[in-house]
Structures are given as C-alpha cells and as structure tokens.
Design a protein that fits this description.
This protein has about 180 residues and is α+β, with helices and mostly antiparallel strands. The protein is built from 4 helices and 9 strands; from the N terminus they run E-H-E-E-E-H-E-E-E-H-H-E-E.
Length: about 180
C-alpha cells in the first residue's frame, strides 16, 4: 500500500465547540468527508504531488485516507495559531522524501511554514549524508541542500489564524493527503 499521488491542503474553522471547529477547518481544507488516518513523515518514492483539486477528484466520501496532518487550535481571543506542512523531495524519484508537520503559537505564516520546510529538508539531508552547518540560517542550508545534487525541491503550506475575538474555538489545519 504505497501512495502514488499526494496533495497539500489547508483550512480554518471557528465554532463554539472545539470538535466542530476542527470539522469546519477540515471542510475548508476539502477533506472532511474522509476517514483520516494520520501517518508519519515519509514521502513515498515516485509519489507525484498534484494540485488539490486533482487529488480530491480521486477520493470518494467515506474512504480511509492517509495523511500527514498538522493541527492547532485556541479559544483565546486574538492568539495566533499556525499549522504547517514542510516537504523535501529528492532528486532521484526512486528515493523517498520527507514531510514534516509543525504546530505553533505566535508565529506568522512565513515563519511557521519555513520552519516546517527546514525540518523536512534537514531530515532528508541527514538521511542522504549531506554535510551542513546545523547552526546556519535556513536560507543558507537551503542553498547547500539544493546544490548538493540530492534534494530536488523543498516547499511548505501553512495556515494561520488569530483566535476568535469572542473566544470561540479557532482551528487551523494543514495536510499532505495521500492517494493510494
């Protein structure tokens, strides 16, 4: 059971009930009608990343669908929440890549997204034996990774939201969804 395709998605939900807020975030992401099974961090070899709309067309309501899911929520007014998925794709499609999830408070979309991307790229780089300075800034390491000839690309998707001003639950999700 190895996924052949995957897609990224994200969403936000606000509701007085925490679970309903999560459901609304899944609806916003377009994945509420599936039975989601969270998995860890491997992008399978030869797994093609497709646009969300294309991926959703291949899934049927009620299906058991595997995904890497980042989820965060708050009921504190104006508290900034973030959920991000980072992905690192190897040059050789026969090799596996990495996916990371990151959930944080107080980080803007760019910061949280780049952190998740950095996590995925660093995991892949260490697996491939790429030497780098772990203390250097992400943009410096990103260049080392991409010029190494082993990492084709890295990217992220991130969703942030400020907590509802009336204290209702605010949920953000980001996911890499797999198609078997």
């Amino acid at each position: 059971m190895i996924p052949r395709k995957s897609f990224l998605t994200k969403g936000t939900g606000v509701h007085k009930d925490r679970l309903a807020s999560f459901e609304l975030a899944l609806r916003d992401a377009g994945i509420e009608k599936f039975n989601l099974v969270c998995v860890s961090s491997i992008l399978p070899p030869n797994c093609k990343i497709v646009p969300r709309e294309e991926g959703l067309k291949e899934l049927k309501p009620g299906s058991i669908v595997h995904c890497v899911l980042a989820r965060n929520d708050t009921n504190e007014p104006q508290r900034l929440v973030a959920s991000a998925i980072g992905t690192a794709v190897p040059v050789k499609e026969n090799n596996y890549g990495y996916i990371s999830e990151h959930h944080s408070y107080g980080e803007d979309e760019e910061t949280a997204g780049e952190y998740a991307e950095d996590l995925a790229a660093t995991m892949l780089a260490t697996t491939l034996g790429i030497e780098f300075d772990a203390e250097s800034a992400w943009h410096e390491r990103e260049q080392v990774y991409k010029t190494s000839g082993h990492i084709f690309d890295s990217f992220h998707t991130c969703k942030t939201a400020n907590g509802d001003k009336e204290g209702r639950w605010t949920t953000v999700v980001a996911a890499m969804v797999f198609i078997i």
